[in-house]
Specification:
The complex is a heterodimer of chains A (68) and B (404).
Chain A: E1 2-5, H1 15-19, E2 24-26, E3 32-34, H2 45-54, E4 60-63
Antiparallel strand pairs in A: 1-4, 2-3
Chain B: H1 8-11, H2 17-21, H3 24-33, E1 36-39, E2 45-48, H4 51-59, E3 64-65, H5 83-90, H6 102-110, H7 116-120, H8 123-137, E4 142-144, H9 145-149, H10 153-162, H11 169-180, H12 187-210, H13 216-222, E5 224-225, E6 228-229, H14 232-245, H15 248-263, H16 265-273, H17 278-288, E7 294-298, E8 302-304, E9 307-309, E10 314-317, H18 319-322, H19 357-374, E11 379-380, E12 387-389, E13 395-398, E14 400-402
Antiparallel strand pairs in B: 1-2, 3-7, 4-14, 5-6, 7-10, 8-9, 11-14, 12-13
Helix pairs in contact in B: 5-12, 8-19, 11-12, 12-14, 15-19, 17-19
The chains are: A alpha+beta (68), B mainly alpha (404).
Chain lengths: 68, 404
């Protein structure tokens, strides 16, 4: 699984950071970005899904890394 | 117009006392019968109540401007000759009253001092404040949780950020109520409040120009936009926003949270037993008791669904109603203290997401934690005695509680 923040949509609610600090980092303005290449270790997949579900801007997406 | 409401779909009244006390049945009815209601009262407005509509309108800043975010018309200033009163109505409060492109830099200016990291530095002082307030009434076995506690916290926190003595907190509260509560339906009161706030802030700005400090006013005065200092009227407007937007909003959130907890021993017990739930609980309380309704102004004639909206029409952004929409939130009227999926828009959505949201969350979390640590058992003395304010900001204003 891979997680990604759409920088055009993020408005800095910081909800993803609140539920999954391991996967997201914030810049000085509070806008979020996935950490590194966004690959989600299996034990954090549920947190990644919660980050998607709690983002009011629908800015976060997850994709299956199995995909070509 | 005027008199009791007979048809909420065509003649709603956001200042109806029964609606302020219990708006939820009205929103349910409107969502089903007329998801974008209309009224001629209070200057006329549209009121969407579905999450999907609020989401779309908030993000369409081209057609829905923020140039006037007040839910009721300002009316003429009390004295047209009074330059300061005029200023109060025309300067605006950037970035909340700005559209792009000004909004973009005005907001960027404001975000760093309200980041999670910056706000965390205020935690020890805020916790101490909560404790000292509780010290003041703990032995009495009773308190007004709205007036003696919730109301006291935000004005002191914002005063600290602005570098203004905390003794001004009571005055701030009076001014902000004058502007956003009593003044919403009375132009004289609103003008007087705005004049007081602007006059006070102008003096503080002059002081900081002489002697900069490490507070927000000095930060704004020392900031640049496009290589030039931020214009002073802009600094004044932003300081006005910081004062007005950060007080009765958070006070209402804290008060509503305590109103809920006073009546739900199972949620109190859970938060005491599982303190790690608190951040999730705060989001759920924000969803269920969202305090803030903002307004937008239609920028050109347009068709919204089957409705025709005209240039200058006002739209009430009833984020609180969106957050109770069953299409978006299963069992929306139930507070599920550990609700895992909760994309609420209590702080709005889109480019005007509340810049102070991290601060508000911090104040809510600490104030509830400290209250429950000292007063794990409490109840409303008389549920009917609780008084509510509404319109722009909904929350309890007097809420006597008793505890053993």
């Amino acid at each position: 699984m891979r997680v990604r923040v759409d920088g055009e949509k993020c408005q800095g609610h910081n909800r993803c950071f609140a539920v999954a600090k391991e996967l997201f980092e914030l810049d000085e303005y509070g806008y979020s970005h996935e950490i590194g290449d966004g690959v989600v270790p299996p034990e954090l997949e549920e947190k990644a899904r919660l980050a998607v579900a709690n983002c009011p801007e629908r800015a976060i997406s997850i994709a299956d890394t199995e995909e070509a | 117009m005027g008199g009791p409401v007979e048809d909420w779909t065509t003649d709603y009244d956001i200042f109806d006392p029964a609606y302020i006390r219990d708006p939820y049945p009205v929103w349910d009815e409107l969502r089903q019968q007329c998801p974008v209601a209309h009224t001629e009262r209070w200057g006329g407005s549209w009121m969407p109540t579905r999450y999907a509509d609020l989401f779309d309108i908030a993000r369409d800043v081209q057609h829905f401007s923020s140039r006037n975010v007040l839910v009721a018309p300002a009316g003429p200033p009390p004295d047209h000759e009074d330059a300061e009163a005029m200023t109060a109505f025309e300067v605006g409060a950037p970035p909340i009253t700005s559209d792009p492109p000004v909004h973009t830099w005005a907001r960027r200016l404001l975000l760093p001092p309200f980041s999670i990291k910056a706000v965390a530095q205020l935690e020890p002082e805020t916790r101490e404040l909560c404790r000292s307030l509780i010290d003041g009434f703990l032995d009495a076995g009773r308190a007004d949780a709205a007036a003696d506690y919730a109301q006291q916290i935000p004005p002191r926190v914002i005063a600290g950020m602005l570098g203004i003595p905390k003794e001004m907190a009571g005055t701030f509260t009076d001014w902000v109520r004058g502007f956003l509560e009593y003044g919403l339906t009375n132009a004289d009161i609103r003008g007087e409040a705005a004049r007081s706030i602007f006059g006070f802030l102008r003096e503080r700005i002059d002081e900081r120009k002489e002697q900069p400090s490490d507070d927000l006013i000095s930060y704004l005065l020392g900031s640049e936009v496009n290589g030039r200092p931020v214009p002073e009227p802009h600094v004044l407007g932003t300081c006005f926003l910081l004062l007005v937007a950060g007080i009765d909003t958070t006070w209402s959130s804290i008060g509503s949270a305590l109103w809920h907890l006073a009546q739900h021993p199972e949620d109190r017990a859970r938060l005491v037993a599982e303190p790690e739930l608190m951040p999730i609980a705060v989001e759920e309380l924000l969803r269920a008791y969202s305090p803030v309704t903002m307004a937008r102004v239609v920028t050109e004639e347009l068709e919204y669904g089957e409705l025709r909206m005209c240039l200058g029409d006002k739209v009430l952004m009833s984020f609180p109603a969106a957050n109770r929409d069953p299409e978006k939130f299963p069992d929306p009227d139930k507070v599920i203290i550990d609700r895992a999926e909760n994309p609420h828009i209590a702080f709005g959505v889109g480019i005007h997401r509340c810049a102070g949201s991290n601060l508000a969350r911090m104040e809510m979390r600490l104030s509830i934690e400290e209250w429950l640590a000292r007063i794990p058992e409490f109840r409303l003395e008389d549920p009917d005695a609780v008084t509510w304010a509404g319109g722009q900001v909904r929350g309890p204003r007097s809420m006597p509680v008793v505890f053993p």
